[in-house]
């Protein structure tokens, strides 16, 4: 069996780090997300080392939207990570986790005046996505008597090999300013009193399993950087965004490492900046690569049914993991309490949500499954809990963090009370 590095099989049971998943399920209940903190830290170090061994002025900004649990952000802050934040909420979470405002970049294609005011107040750089936003930011910073450093988000118009919903640098994408308009945007910024252009930013997409598109992207960025330098912009950083994927189909998918990524990108970068006579920092914003394989979703089997297919009805659905439904994404699955048994049947793992499409995994050859067994869904650390909802009246599940021999909640499971906690009773609806 091809397992993520933090998982192993011992005594027939799947383990995460030193912890038996069957014991964790008994202690904390199911469904349950479990994350290995050591793995998250190791991945951050791998990313940082891959770049800093090739270029000495590097920053890693973890993309907080992949997994914004404060405990994850704290572990990464501890490692020295900054963050790419895409909302006021993520900005606050990153600051609360102890991240230095100087190491944050506030991204987003549609920021409100309140979002921009928060960035100004907290001293966080902004990646500006339109000329309209530039005008708003200049005014808001001016009213606060501050000057904000910005980058523009460039749309490099690159085709990338990934799911269309997560290709963000296509010519037709809603993100960024077309490369052809970018010089005019910087010219406008140079004319602003309370905004100082300091960097340039792009993000070409997510779950990309080749490094070549990143080399193309950096080459577009370098080209623009040289022209911006001629224009009089002093670029302190070039931010290449995130996007390197992980092999969800272990053993089949390509498995590019951050070292592969850095060897494709850094030589193009260093040669380009040297030629342009500048020495900006190189920033990257990995999300998925850092957290995806650190986490599992443990889900309990409510019933097994032979119908059109052999359905295994479990207690986690797309309310907790939407990737299979939203992107047709593949996640490996393991029967946690029968992890050393041979496959017996072909099963489809179905969630409890009232939607035909609520399937976590289809047509998998697994050991004979019975009521009460535990199914573990692999590689769920990125865009897993982060995209969860209470759809269908389902409280979100707990999240557990393990480190060494310790295991503890990093988020309690929601209760039925949490389903109504934020609701109000309109006054004309008499209390019954
Ligand atoms: C989502 C996002 C990332 C992270 O993408 P991954 O594919 O998870 O690495 C980085 N930068 C920006 C601007 C993003 O929107």
Give a quick rundown of the structure.
The chain has 432 residues and is α/β, with parallel strands linked by helices.
Task: Write structural notes for this entry.
The chain has 12 helices and 21 strands. With 432 residues, it is an alpha/beta fold. The strands form 3 sheets. Strands 4, 14, 15, 16, 17, 18, 19, 20 and 21 form a 9-stranded mixed beta sheet that branches. Strands 5-6-7-8-9-11-12-13 form an 8-stranded parallel β-barrel, surrounded by 6 helices. A 3-stranded antiparallel beta sheet has the order 1-2-3. Helix 4 (88-96) links the parallel strand 6 and strand 7. Helix 2 packs parallel to helix 9 (258-276), helix 7 (182-190) packs across helix 8 and helix 8 (212-231) runs parallel beside helix 9. The longest helix is centred in the middle third of the chain and has 20 residues, at 212-231. It is globular and about 70 Å long. It binds pyridoxal-5'-phosphate (PLP).
According to DSSP, the number of beta strands is: 21
- Give average pLDDT, whole number: 96
Main pleated sheet = 9 strands, mixed
Q: Choose one word for the global shape.
A: globular
Separate helix tally: 12
Distinct small molecules bound, one entry per kind: pyridoxal-5'-phosphate
pLDDT < 50 runs, ≥5 residues: none
Alpha-carbon distance between the termini? Answer: 56 Å
Percentage of residues in strands: 15-25%
The SS-based structural class is alpha/beta
What is Rg?
A: 23 Å
The percentage helix is 25-40%
Features:
single chain, 432 residues, nine-stranded mixed β-sheet, eight-stranded parallel barrel, binds pyridoxal-5'-phosphate
